[in-house]
Structure formats: C-alpha cells, structure tokens
Design brief:
Pfam families: IIGP. This protein is α/β, with parallel strands linked by helices and 164 residues long. Helix content is 34%, strand content 17%. The strands form two sheets. The chain has a three-stranded parallel β-sheet, sandwiched between helices. A two-stranded antiparallel ribbon has the order 1-2.
Length: 164
C-alpha cells in the first residue's frame, strides 16, 4: 500500500493516532492489523494506562517497531508482552536510511552493517530472552529487500499456529 493510498496508515513526524485503527491484510481478509497510538507520548505516557485503555491483551501477536536505538519504552513493552505469553516480533525500521547514510569511506559493507544492527538489538534485549529469529530489519519503502518477506512469513506462520 502506498503512503497516498486511502487504505494506508497515517504517517507523520508527530503523533497521528489517538485510537487503534484496524487494517485488513490485502490478501487475507481473516487477518487484520491494528495501528496503535504510540506509547511514551503525551497521550499515553504510562504503560499500564496504555495497556488497559487499548485493551492490548486481546491482540494475538505484537509487532514492536523500533527505529535507531532500542529504548526503555521498547523494553517495557517487550517485557509486558512476554509476561502475558503472547507472540511478538521486533522490527527495526528505516534500514534503507542506515544503508544510505553510512559514510562513503566506511569500512562496513551493507551485510556487516545489518549484522551490527541485529547484534545491537540482540544485546539490548538479551535479558528478556528475545529470539534472534524474531528480529527483523526492514524498510517500508523497499518491501522486497532485507527481512520484509521473512517477517510476513513469520506473521502468517504464527497466525496458522494452534497456540495463538
């Protein structure tokens, strides 16, 4: 779905969602995603209030999106999701930006850069026992690159699982 598509989620540099917005997966009408307001914002500064207000326990799978660094807010959400024994995936976005902004004379090749990012996430979440296979590096502008396809497969796999 393109950003300009009427079915696309709102995207902005400021908070855009105040309520959960549901989107049906285009190729499977039995699967839907909910775009939730951000946690750790003026509207939802407290995790417990956020959790109760949005009734997050009703969701089957959590997609936890991160850009740049793993934050305390990310870790709190991961810990909460793990405490209720729900499936989740850690999704590091804007990988295209990372690859484009690396210094031209940098020694890191793209593959090394991706490994460094993934290793950072693994190290940052180690105390929460996050599985490496549940970490995905993506760019919404390049859905055919990096881990986007693997992410879709993982989501569909969990959706088919009798445990969810």
């Amino acid at each position: 779905v393109d950003d300009e598509d009427e079915l696309a989620a709102s995207v902005d540099i400021v908070e855009t969602e105040q309520e959960p917005t549901e989107y049906t997966y285009p190729s499977n009408p039995h699967v839907s995603f909910c775009d939730l307001p951000g946690y750790g914002t003026p509207s939802f500064p407290n995790l417990e209030t956020y959790w109760k207000t949005l009734e997050l326990e009703k969701f089957e799978i959590f997609l936890i999106f991160m850009s740049l660094r793993v934050t305390e807010l990310d870790l709190a959400i991961i810990k909460k999701v793990k405490s209720i024994k729900k499936s989740f995936f850690l999704i590091r976005t804007k990988i295209d930006v990372e690859c484009m902004t690396k210094k031209p004379n940098a020694q890191l090749q793209e593959e090394d850069l991706l490994s460094k990012i993934k290793d950072y996430i693994i190290t940052s979440t180690k105390h929460l026992s996050c599985a490496e296979e549940d970490i995905f590096l993506i760019s919404n502008y390049y859905p055919y690159k990096w881990d986007f396809f693997r992410l879709i497969q993982a989501i569909m796999s969990v959706m088919r699982s009798p445990e969810t």
